[in-house]
Amino acid sequence: xxxxxxxxVKPNVVFILTDDQGPWAAxxxxxxxxxxxxxxxxxxxxxxxxxxxxxxxxxSPSRATYITGRIPSQHGVHDFISGSRDAPKxxxxxxxxxPGAIRYLEGQTTYTEVMAxxxxxxALSGKWHLGDTQIPHxxxxxxxxxxxxxxxxxxxPLVRDGQMxxxxxxxxxxFTDEAVMRxxxxxxxxxxxxxxxxYTAPHSPWTGHPQEIVDSYDDCPFESCPQEPVHPWAADQGxxxxxxxxxxxxxxxxxxxTAMDIGVGRIIDKIEERGLRENTLIVxxxxxxxxxxxxxFWGKGNGTLPRNMFENSVRVxxxxxxxxxxxxxxxxxxxxxAYDVMPTLLNYVDLPTPNEADLPGSxxxxxxxxxxxKERENVVIFDEYGPVRxxxxxxxxxxxxxxxxxxxxxxxxxxxxxxxxLTDDPGQTKRIQELRAMMDEWFAKYxxxxxxxxxxxxxxxxxxxxxxxx
Length: 470
Fold this sequence. Notes:
Elements: E1 12-18, H1 37-44, E2 47-53, H2 59-68, H3 72-75, H4 111-117, E3 121-126, E4 142-146, E5 154-160, E6 163-170, H5 171-189, E7 193-198, H6 211-215, H7 238-243, H8 247-273, E8 280-286, E9 291-292, E10 298-299, H9 311-314, E11 315-321, E12 330-337, H10 341-348, H11 365-368, E13 381-385, E14 388-392, E15 396-401, E16 408-411, H12 429-446
Parallel strand pairs: 1-7, 1-8, 2-12, 3-4, 3-7
Antiparallel strand pairs: 2-11, 4-5, 5-6, 8-11, 9-10, 13-14, 14-15, 15-16
Helix pairs in contact: 5-8
């Protein structure tokens, strides 16, 4: 068992969050084609989770769950935060900046606020995508922020010191430069810090990435991304139409990951150079998964209509590394959700979790320390995306589409690639009833009625409305 950390010293936390990274898109997850030596380096010095699930297979609601510990039907963010597409410049501008900007997490407690109130300096470099990006909030005092949720990789629209700018350079490097600078400043001041590094990589566009990295994948066979016949639910989806079978898109996606991995390496190097590694927890994960031709589509949960809950959409890479505290090179098979992150991180830094009884997740800190956690053996994962809900046990996955169907049942032991839908199998009737009852009971416990995802239409493309509590 790993030794206990010194509780008299506040540990630093660096939380690296990528955008649209499939669970297959890292070398340490068994992909021999994509180059991610620094993500692999974190996994070799920490714990890699094989079954880490986001709460929603799309960016904004997933990010809201990470930072609040609440599901979409509690925090009220159900889809990516959209803006005005006819804005004169930029991508998804609208409610993200300016006088009309909405703070979608207004009034909700984030773990960054708790840490800030207890002595940590909190900074963000990268994507926020939860409304109002112009002024730091949620406990952050420093932030270099993307104006919206994405955009071009070069001369990207960012918010720097409260001003909207088109930042010169490759945006992955810009976010890394800011993170490295912050680490130096906090090390010089000898203060505990929490640093979010939220890359937009490898989200589209898959153009504009360093050409030498793109070219390095010229001869890649891309066997890790089979370009299957188009899925019937994706036949009308533009992303799939434009990308399925397109080697240049595959090269761009892989290059975006590898360029981001170089940034991860620079962050690790800086932490080590400043003598902070033994007192710094580094977390690496993604906001949702992604398919690059798997199952015959490109995209995540909204890559198909109806929306999907395939493993590549709801499962993400997740690595926790802290030498001397977290066992090195361990692969954890237990089921863990993004709604477990808030109680775990606060537990990790020895702070209480506010409103813990109202949160669906629980701390897995003992597991990070290499201790046995029998209570995690029977954990069940629940997901939602509007009116689509999922229950996932170690052996089974059931997806229920409340509006119109179709429903899905998969045997995750014998059919891990989700090819054989068993919902019409008469022999599974009892199992479906049990899983459905489990799902209904769980959501009834946590859903706030006015923010219930079942009220959403299920075919919207982005969210612009704020759902207040009565």
